[in-house]
Amino acid sequence: MIRAYKFLMRPTVGQTIALGEMLRDHCGLYNGALQERRDAYRHTSKTSIKYGMQSAQLKEIRAFDPERQGRWSFSGQQATLRRLDKAFAAFFRRIKSGETPGHPRFRGVNRFDTVDFPKDGDGCRWDSTPHDAQTRVRFQGVGHVKVKQHRPVAGKVKTVSVKREGKRWYVVLTAEQAQPEPLPATGSIVGIDMGIASFLTTSKGEHIINPRHGRKAAAKLEAAQQALARCKRRSNRRKKAVAKVGDLHRKVRRQRLDHAHKTALTLVREHDFIAHEDLRIRNMSKAPAPKPDPGTPGSFLPNGAAAKAGLNRSIADAGWGVFLAILHAKAESAGREVIAVDPRNTSRTCPECGHVAKENRPTQEKFHCVGCGHQAHADIVGAANVLRAGLARRKAQPA
User: Fold this and answer.
1) DSSP string, 360-384
2) Whole-angstrom Cα distance, residue 383 to residue 210?
3) Is the per-residue pLDDT at 399 higher than 80?
4) Model confidence over 55-74: pLDDT tens digits?
5) What is the pTM for the complete model shown?
6) Nearest to 75, CA basis, from 123, 120, 24
7) Domain ranges of the chain
8) C-alpha span between 238 and 47 (Å, rounded)
9) Burial code of 234-253, b = ≥16 C-beta within 10 A, e = fewer?
10) Is 10 exposed, middle or buried (0-12, 13-18, 19+ CB in 10 A)?
11) Mean pLDDT, to the nearest integer, of 40-58?
């Protein structure tokens, strides 16, 4: 299996400048290759240029511009061209499937934050042997950079990437390792119901609170964004304001990831089988369609867009998609079973008599079956129904 590791780097002032120049020159290569593809399609009878044709030109590009392109890793530059090729492949795939295409765009220097090295030892070298009690990673054109390695890397390092996040620099590794030993069986099974009031509720009656990191940081974010709006464009004051807004968003993202990792790890350690709702989060967070007023052309009727916008913010703040992806990854490495089930009517179905009705859930928290009179917490009922559906699906799956 392949596992990723992300470590904070501690570059010197000179290394920080060199890393910034590396990102700048790779960004120039990316934009130049994109411009070549656009020109070929527009002016040469709609000719398509592929990765192989552009990669064959790298030797000439490096010889023509040794100061900006010749000093960096050849393999890293090939990875940048592959990145552009993948963007075009995704563009044509979206066209064929009828989705909104989104043509690949030119990247600004401040929006090009990653350089990949497809092989350890080719333009980069991960060295976990401590030098003065400090791990280092070497990059061609930069040198040996100190790394804060907070956990050991298991397996053979395959790829290395440099990533800039604000003023911080990270190294991202992918390592190939053997499948770990599964965790000891606990004999416990559980269903989980995702929500807004509670982040999740288990079929055993446990409620995990929703930390609402985005809402807690909303006041600071609003003040920082207002200060940014008052700044003059291209001024140093605006650059500092942009950095502050970015730092606040990154802090919320780290908090959200930390909560998702800890919650998923607890579930995986305590249960052998986990069932959850197969949520279509993108559809759930869509804005409502406008309602034209038939009596007044050009005007619209109220459609609840303001209330839906608040719900969409809460859904995004909860981070269900990130949590479920982490849960599946941890369950796979631990030998646990996770199954997604259809979420329709899970909170409207009575677990005692099976009666399904909208009236069974009169409020957000209360469940009261109009058929048999069964009462319980609505989220616990939903989690129990999710578990029942998950067990039924597992039984129906072929061996």
Assistant:
1) G--SSSEEE-TTT--EEEHHHHHHH
2) 16
3) no
4) 999 999 999 999 999 999 99
5) 0.87
6) 123
7) 2-176, 189-396
8) 42
9) eeeebeebeebbeebeeebe
10) middle
11) 86
